C-alpha cells in the first residue's frame, strides 16, 4: 500500500515537473537555438534554419547513441533550469502585483510604489466623482417619477472599478482587489483575516479548500507566465522576434494575474462569509442566525495569535 502511494505520488510529481517546467523550458531552448542559428540579419529565414538543424542532426556527436543521451540530458537539465528561473521571476512579479508589503520595500521601490498609489488615487477620485454625479442625477430623476437610461452610469461604474473597487491603498489593481476583501470583511463582519484564517481554513469543507488552493495555484502560474516573458528578453538581442514573444507573454500574464486574483479574492471572501457562523460555533461563541459584526469581533478577539495572511500572497 505504501509503495503504491509513493509510486503514485512520484508519478504526479513527475507529471507536474514535466508539464510546468520541462515543456515550456524545451520551447524556450528551441527559440534560443533558432536565435543562434538565424541572428538578426536572417530572423525570418526558415530555409536557413532548416539547413542549420540538418547540419546539427548529422554531426557525429548527434548520431552516436552516447551523444544523443548526453544531448537529451542536457536539454532536460536546461529546460528544467529555465523553468525554475521563470518560476523565480514569477514569484517576484507576484509579490509586486499583490504588493501586500509595499510599505516595507526598499526606499527606491517604495518611493515609486507611493507615486503609483497617488496616481491611482487621482484617477479613482475623478472616476468616482463622475459616477457619483450620475447616480445623483438618477436619484433626482426617480424622485420626479422619471427614469434615466443606465448606460452612461454603467459605463462610469466600469471605468471606476477598472481603477479599483475602493479608494486605492496599493500600487496595483491586483493588490487593491485583494486588499478590498480584508477591508470588507472587517467592515461588514468585524473579521481580521490575518487572525481568523488558519482556524477558518481548518473547518472549511474539502471542496471549498480545493477550489481556493486551485485558484491560488492558478495565480502563481499566471505570474510564472510573466516570468517567462523576462527570460525571452535577452534572446531579443540576437533575434528580434523574441521581443514579440516577450510582449505577448507579458500581456497575457498581466491579464491572467488580474483574472486569477479576482477569482481568488471572490473565493476567499465567499468562504469567510459562508462559514463565519460555523467558526463561531466551533469556538463555542454565540452566533444565532447570520454572522454579525459582534460575532466577527468576538472571533477575532479569541483568535488573537499572530498567523499568516491568506491575502498577502505569501
UniProtKB/TrEMBL annotation:
Keywords: Membrane, Transmembrane, Transmembrane helix. The chain crosses the membrane at residues 20-41, 62-84, 229-250. This is Vegetative cell wall protein gp1. It comes from Catenulispora yoronensis. The lineage of its organism: Bacteria, Bacillati, Actinomycetota, Actinomycetes, Catenulisporales.
Amino acid at each position: 500500500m505504501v509503495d503504491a502511494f509513493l509510486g503514485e505520488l512520484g508519478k504526479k510529481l513527475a507529471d507536474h515537473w514535466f508539464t510546468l517546467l520541462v515543456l515550456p523550458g524545451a520551447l524556450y531552448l528551441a527559440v534560443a537555438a533558432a536565435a543562434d542559428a538565424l541572428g538578426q540579419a536572417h530572423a525570418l529565414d526558415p530555409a536557413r534554419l532548416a539547413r542549420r538543424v540538418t547540419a546539427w542532426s548529422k554531426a557525429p556527436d548527434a548520431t552516436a547513441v552516447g551523444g544523443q543521451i548526453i544531448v537529451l540530458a542536457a536539454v532536460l537539465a536546461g529546460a528544467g533550469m529555465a523553468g525554475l528561473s521563470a518560476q523565480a521571476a514569477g514569484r517576484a512579479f507576484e509579490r509586486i502585483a499583490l504588493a501586500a508589503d509595499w510599505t516595507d520595500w526598499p526606499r527606491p521601490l517604495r518611493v515609486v510604489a507611493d507615486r503609483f498609489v497617488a496616481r491611482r488615487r487621482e484617477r479613482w477620485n475623478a472616476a468616482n466623482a463622475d459616477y457619483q454625479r450620475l447616480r445623483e442625477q438618477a436619484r433626482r430623476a426617480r424622485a420626479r417619477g422619471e427614469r434615466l437610461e443606465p448606460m452612461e452610469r454603467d459605463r462610469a461604474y466600469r471605468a471606476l472599478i477598472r481603477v479599483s473597487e475602493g479608494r486605492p491603498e496599493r500600487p496595483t489593481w491586483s493588490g487593491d482587489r485583494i486588499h478590498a476583501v480584508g477591508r470588507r470583511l472587517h467592515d461588514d463582519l468585524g473579521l481580521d483575516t490575518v487572525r481568523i484564517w488558519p482556524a477558518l481554513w481548518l473547518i472549511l469543507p474539502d471542496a471549498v479548500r480545493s477550489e481556493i488552493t486551485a485558484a491560488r495555484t492558478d495565480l502563481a502560474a499566471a505570474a510564472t507566465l510573466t516570468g517567462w516573458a523576462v527570460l525571452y528578453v535577452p534572446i531579443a538581442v540576437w533575434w528580434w522576434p523574441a521581443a514579440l514573444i516577450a510582449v505577448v507573454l507579458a500581456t497575457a500574464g498581466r491579464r491572467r494575474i488580474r483574472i486569477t486574483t479576482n477569482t481568488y479574492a471572490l473565493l476567499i471572501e465567499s468562504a469567510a462569509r459562508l462559514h463565519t457562523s460555523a467558526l463561531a460555533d466551533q469556538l463555542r461563541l454565540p452566533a444565532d442566525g447570520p454572522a454579525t459584526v459582534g460575532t466577527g469581533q468576538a472571533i477575532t478577539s479569541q483568535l488573537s495569535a499572530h498567523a499568516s495572511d491568506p491575502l498577502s500572497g505569501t
